[in-house]
Specification:
Order of helices and strands: EEHHHHH
Protein name: DUF4200 domain-containing protein
Strand order of the largest sheet: 1-2
Strand content: under 5%
Distance between the termini: 138 Å
Shape: flat
Helix content: over 70%
Largest sheet: 2 strands, antiparallel
Keywords: Coiled coil
Number of helices: 5
Length: 331
Amino acid sequence: MPRRKPTIKTDVIGDLDLSPEQAIEDYKVSKQQDQYFVKPPNWDSAGESIEMLYIANLREYDAMKKVQVQLLTDAKRQSALNVQRIRKMYKMQEKLRKRFVEVNGFIKDCADKKRSSDKCIREESVLHEEVIKEIDEFKTSISSLKSFRNDLKATTAKFQPYERVLNDVVKVSDIFISTKDCIDRCDALMLAQVEINELGAQKLKEIEEMRQRMVQLTSEAALTVLGLKNDLARLERSYVHSRATCLKWEKILSACKDATISYNLDKERMFDGIQILYRLLCKRRDITQSFHSHEIDRIMNFAFGEITLLSSVLQELESAKSDKTGTGHMC
């Protein structure tokens, strides 16, 4: 802390370039703290000698060795306990692994047995349903066969007279060899009749299809012709409209052409008049024509100058004439 005048110094507790009144608080704080400032011992206190420091360090070393021995003993005992616990844990783990393998194998066997049993149950159920269906079919067939047997017996009893007639026909006729031959020929004729009827129905069906096809083609052709007629009428109307438009534009273009021709004629006449005026002005002044016929701008400038000059001359003449007239009257 400065005593006489402020100094340019800083301390651990802050700025010391202050007046004593302002730095007294920092000074008190500096006196009270022990972290950055060590208080000197009093004058009557014995200082610590090397022997005392050695004794203190030796005591601390002995205490630390005891603590170290105790910690090593505890560590060995804890390591032995840990080894025993690890062995027990490994044994328990091995037992649990074996038990898990056994249980897992048992569960897999149960699952396989369940799947195989479910598969067998499904197969047996399907087979049972098929057997039930076959039994029902057999029962139906047996009942139908019984009814057919009864009907056959009734039909046989009914057709016995016809059988006697067929036997008599075979005996009398030389065409048929036996009754079966006669029945086979009759069946063949009946089958031929059936085939002929089917063929006739098929041909009639083909004829009907051909007629429908012809009707369809005729209607399509009629529609096509009608569409062509409509297109032709539309084209005719378009042609008439185009012809009228062409005539209208022909009249307009003829009027434009006449206007263009008349404009060109007026232009040529104007150019001829300008040339004649230019010749007259040159002849009046008795000079040669220095400009060509296509140099219209120069010719017009020349004619404008000449006409301006003539206008000024005429004005002078008129003013002189008017002056003479005025003097004559005064005389």
